[in-house]
Amino acid sequence: MSSSGGEMTNAQLFQQIALLRWLSSQTEEDRRILAAVTGVQVGRELLNRITGQDKVDAYKRECILGISEFVRLNPRASQAEINAEVEKRVLVFAARVKALEAAPLF
Questions:
Q1: What is the distance between the alpha carbons of residues 31 and 17, in angstroms, rounded to a whole number?
Q2: E strand or H helix at 4
Q3: Which of 51, 59, 90, 98 lies 20 to 30 angstroms, CA to CA, from 18?
């Protein structure tokens, strides 16, 4: 996964450093380091796909940002209107998370 600016993640950078080091040296030690770094990255991605945690985090951010945007655009909204918007956004968040349970892993 890349960051929003298109840069490599830390895990991708470590993997590329290990790959570059192995390509330069071709030593068994550097091959093992590359294999270990790649294994950790693959394991992390598999866990993320199984748990769906990255999607849950994204849905949570969208929910919070949506509520913030509503409040910003409606500074005179009553507490009842704000509560209704929060409830609506939380229900959408919950439905999206629930849908992850039925989604295929890959």
A1: 12
A2: none
A3: 51
Cα 2 to chain centroid distance, Å, stands at 10
HSE-up (13 A, CA, CB side) for residue 69:
7
Q: How far separated are the first and last CA of the chain, in Å rounded? A: 15
Number of helices and strands (H, E) in the chain?
Answer: 4, 0
pTM for this predicted structure: 0.59
Q: Which sign does the torsion angle of CA 73, 79, 85, 86 carry?
A: positive
Handedness of CA 37, 38, 39, 42 (dihedral sign): positive
Q: What's the mean pLDDT in 82-103?
A: 90
Residues 6+ apart with CB under 8 A from 65: none
